[in-house]
Amino acid sequence: MLKLSPSILSADFNILGKQIKEVEEAGATYLHIDVMDGNFVPSISYGMPVIKSIRKNTNLFFDVHLMVEEPDRFLQDFKDAGADMITVHYEANKHLHRTITRIKEMGLKAGVALNPSTPVRVLEYIIEQLDMVLIMTVNPGFGGQSFIPFSIRKIQELKQMVERLGISIDIQVDGGISTANVREVIEAGANVIVAGTSVFNGNIKNNIEEFNNIFKDY
Ligand code: DX5
Ligand code: ZN
């Protein structure tokens, strides 16, 4: 089942609540929330108070992408703020298995994100505990960057690993995705599509409709 996860990093924060309503009314079910710590990635975005505040106004599934060093320190806080799924970075974690176990014990869905240069094989022993793997298709830290072409091969490799193990998990892609290249990532095996600029630039409702029209072909 294909899902669009609009990334609020590209929203207009002056009218964030209104834009989230537009996303919901356009038929999206996920909301991608990028948390940056200025350490794991070169920028700082927003954190728990913002999530807590927007939680009051929407039933969207909160897909929280933590670009944060040693995220164990904050898992409970993000749960309390309203996260439905927490995705942590392989590269930001000393004890990934412990972190994933904690997220699952809290009753949330758990994902692991891989930077562009991190091979899929590092997930071999953890993948069966995951609900989702996030293949970063740009270097994390900013919206509006260009899709890295070798990501297609990584998505295919991950899909093969999932099939070999006979498991069912979501494959998310994040960075530089638009209606111009979304077919390629879907055909490679991705089923949860993050889109920031290509949803929030221009008319949100029309942009989401364009993605949904493409999804109908699959
Ligand atoms: C980048 C973030 C992305 C970002 C994507 O570090 O993880 O979620 O919002 O933005 P676009 O779709 O504009 O590349
Ligand atoms: Zn993200």
Can you describe this structure?
This protein is an alpha/beta fold and 218 residues long. The termini are close together. It has a single domain (3-215), classed as Aldolase class I (TIM Barrel, Alpha-Beta Barrel). The protein has helices spanning 16-25, 48-55, 75-81, 96-105, 151-165, 182-188, 197-200, 204-215; strands spanning 3-6, 30-36, 61-67, 85-89, 109-114, 132-136, 170-174, 192-195. The chain is globular and about 40 Å long. The chain is 33% helix and 20% strand. The chain contains eight helices and eight strands; from the N terminus they run E-H-E-H-E-H-E-H-E-E-H-E-H-E-H-H. Helix 2 (48-55) runs parallel beside helix 3. Strand 4 (85-89), helix 4 (96-105) and strand 5 form a beta-alpha-beta unit. The model has no long low-confidence stretch (mean pLDDT 98). The protein has an eight-stranded parallel beta sheet with strand order 1-8-7-6-5-4-3-2. It binds D-xylitol-5-phosphate and zinc ion. D-xylitol-5-phosphate (DX5) is lined by residues 7, 9-10, 32, 34, 65, 138, 140-145, 174-177, 194-198.
Observed structural traits:
single chain, 218 residues, alpha/beta, TIM Barrel, binds D-xylitol-5-phosphate, binds zinc ion
Question: Can you summarize this structure?
Answer:
The protein has 218 residues and is an alpha/beta fold. Helices cover 33% and strands 20% of the residues.
